[in-house]
Specification:
By secondary structure, this protein is an all-beta fold. It has no helices and eleven strands. A hairpin with a 4-residue loop joins β9 and β10.
Length: 118
């Protein structure tokens, strides 16, 4: 099972980005999917999560600016980042609860860099 994150880049304050995280491999079921981020010198933190049914939750610092969504047919989770701030600069990681035929396990993507700077 692999998660491939993409969509990061350099953007000016106030700008937008859309991150994608596609899953592949032997997947029987996907449960909750999430985005985390880790800034230099800081601990990794949860940004947003979404259940199979589409229920979402967000960290307070992104409410109203970021939107998480998923396409269950494509086994992909997205994160729309609006009104970006310099403090949003971090490596963004996706993860997902996946049943691979033997167990539920949390798989992580490799991360995609988001840099917000003028």
């Amino acid at each position: 099972v692999q998660l491939q994150a993409s969509g990061g880049g350099l953007v000016q304050p106030g700008g937008t980005l859309r991150l994608s995280c596609a899953t592949s491999g032997t997947i029987f079921k996907i449960g909750d999917m999430r985005w985390h981020r880790q800034a230099p010198g800081k601990q990794r933190e949860l940004v947003a999560g979404i259940t199979t049914g589409g229920r979402t939750n967000y960290a307070d610092f992104v409410k109203g600016r970021f939107t998480i969504s998923r396409d269950n047919a494509k086994n992909t989770v997205y994160l729309q980042l609006n009104s970006l701030k310099p403090e949003d600069t971090a490596v963004y990681y996706c993860n997902a609860d996946i049943w691979d035929g033997y167990r539920w396990y949390i798989y992580w993507g490799q991360g995609t860099q988001v840099t917000v700077s003028s």
